[in-house]
Amino acid sequence: MTQSMTGFARGSVTTDSAAVTVEVRSVNNRFLDLHFRMPDSVRALEPTLREGVSKLIARGKVEVHIKVQETQALSAIAVNQARLNSWVSALEQVTQALPSSTAPDPMALLMAPGVLESAEADTEALSKAVLAAHTEALHGLVEQRLREGAQLAGLVAGRAATMRAQLAALRLQLPALRDVQRQRILDRIADAGVSADGKRLEEELVYVAQRADVDEEMDRIDAHLDAIEQALAGKAPCGRRLDFLMQELNREANTLSSKSNALTTTNTAVEFKLLIEQMREQIQNIE
């Protein structure tokens, strides 16, 4: 299905030791460009996270911001009783050697190296939480990109349908336009009072008609419009293909305009260019 390249989503998981939040943001880009911001404690997960993004997203600049906030259980501190006993024993020896010395207060004793220690983080649980939050955010981003992509596909398909209708109308008008062109040439010859050789005149009229013939251009435009419909209906990313088709459509519209010898054809070519530009603006945001 058609995806947009812009979106934002957030995923969060809370464990006994940490609260993990993952924010994923994507904007337009020609290729897949990944950027990660995360604490060093989970930096080892980056290759796995990159692989997860690559499986679901083909194009866009994607920024992943991971926040890890320690909960109260993790930040709680504990007293290393063995180390505290060692310090107390050492202080007793100092007191015996120096009876006049002042004993340290309890806070100073707690600040002694190794007395206080914090609970160590559960690395495995933290990694699982980060991966779960990342998956939640990533799927939320894809859902948002799909919703916006469906809207963009509808806009492009609508303009392509308008272009096809205008093309069909031009096909119906071409025989009459050719007759008008032929009669205009004959009238000019008659007004000039010049007698022309019938065979030579027919050859020139055929030559002029061939130069103004736009059947091939219209056939190619029709084929490009079919390709647009197929690309939008497919499951693979289609942004680059659609962008290429816009270039081809614009080329055919320019040729149609250069061959035009009637205001109707010129106006149709101008309308084509406007519709192509409108489609191109929407396609710039399609994956």
Radius of gyration: 37 Å
Helix-strand makeup class: alpha+beta
Specify the number of helices.
9
Order of helices and strands: EEEHEHEHHEHHHHH
Strand content: 5-15%
- Quickly count the domains: 3
The span between the termini is 10 Å
Largest sheet: 4 strands, mixed
Indicate the low-confidence ranges by residue numbers: none
- The strand line-up of the biggest sheet is 1-2-4-3
Structure description:
The chain starts with 6 loop residues before the first strand and ends with a helix. β3 (32-37), α1 (46-56) and β4 (60-70) form a beta-alpha-beta unit. The protein has 287 residues and is of the alpha+beta class. The mean pLDDT is 84. It has helices spanning 46-56, 72-75, 81-97, 106-110, 123-192, 198-211, 215-233, 239-259, 263-283, and strands spanning 7-14, 18-27, 32-37, 60-70, 77-79, 116-118. The chain folds into three domains: 7-73 and 122-146, 2-Layer Sandwich (Ribosomal Protein S5, domain 2); 77-118; 148-283, no CATH class. The strands form two sheets. Strands 1-2-4-3 form a four-stranded mixed beta sheet. A two-stranded antiparallel ribbon has the order 5-6. The longest helix has 70 residues, at 123-192.
